[in-house]
Amino acid sequence: MQIPHIVPTQDSALNTALTAVINNKTKPLGSLGSLEVIALQIGLIQQTTRPALMQPAIVIFAADHGVVAEGISAYPQSVTWQMVENFLSEGAAINVFARQSQCSLHIVDAGVNHDFGTRPKLIAKKVGFGTKNFIHEAAMTTEQCATALTHGIALIGGLPGNIIGFGEMGIGNTTAAAAIMQKITGLPLVECVGAGTAFDATRILLKQSVIQRAINHHDRVATPLEILATFGGFEIAMMVGAMLAAAERRMVLLIDGFIVTSALLIAARLRPEILDYCVFAHCSDEHGHRQMLTYLKAQPLLQIGLRLGEGTGAALALPLVQAAVAFMAEMATFESASVDAISPLDA
Ligand SMILES: Cc1cc2ncn([C@H]3O[C@H](COP(=O)(O)O)[C@@H](O)[C@H]3O)c2cc1C
Ligand SMILES: O=C(O)c1cccnc1
């Protein structure tokens, strides 16, 4: 398997040209805040002073986790496939928000512990019926990890647009994401473990001790791909492949919450240039997400107490990203609108 090659977006001449376009719009300098940062970023990604977003898509990667046997989630594993059914019948939060943001939604079975049969609307990329319990053995084999990455890479070729939001579904995956976070960032485990779907302190303590035992058990695991195969999930590995391929294709990557960002931690360790292509939709209320974002030097767009996943933060932030590109394309300049620009004394 070939890890996609990603080109850094930095280009000082284009940066200057884009900054001039942004600053010539009829507004005080810098007054559109984060939208200006995103407009500049997308101009650099698309290598143009006239960026445009087409056919936005959100892809939900679903899979199950063997570590649920340790009681780390408040919900049973069956919820994963039941929620996939809910996505397919358009009843989940992400269906509502994707409709509202007018983006297409794609659901991938990366490794759910359920036989869905043949379903036209479900993208069947099942690597296995859930991962192994990583407290005893690696969650997946090296081959399964490579297969998941390869499927993720291939999926991107089937998308017509130039912006992709990442979402996930998998009972137990906040435990996998917390383990990945600890291994990649080196932060103390207590900083990495949050409640997930649970709300009782006892379960958080249980999660911490399960992950600590697993980390001790797999004490030689060090490279990003080893970390992914040992502690990850099929949906997380498939997201890593899809993220790398999307950045290679110069798409905008809309990053959702805690689990999606854990996939990005792996992708960024493999290809640091990927961060040039990422827009961070929100800061989740999941304990640990803020620290992950700080580690990646990321500025999230929203902080509205979300802790759901599914790509809901990405769907909600999409209109803001579209607004950034729209103001570049549609706002008048000081010259075209005959508005007096900044006076030379203050310039
Ligand atoms: C009904 C329901 C819908 C969800 N949609 C996303 N998640 C979120 O919660 C799960 C992770 O939390 P934990 O690690 O505690 O199991 C993931 O499936 C995530 O996408 C859901 C969870 C539930 C219960
Ligand atoms: O931040 C997230 O994406 C998240 C948090 C809790 C549960 N599921 C997802």
TrEMBL record:
The keyword Transferase applies. It holds the Pfam family DBI_PRT. Gene3D superfamilies: 1.10.1610.10, 3.40.50.10210. It comes from the Bacteria. The active site is at E310 (proton acceptor). GO terms for biological process: cobalamin biosynthetic process. Belongs to the CobT family. NCBIfam families: cobT_DBIPRT, PRK00105.1. This is Nicotinate-nucleotide--dimethylbenzimidazole phosphoribosyltransferase. It comes from Glaciimonas immobilis. The gene is cobT.
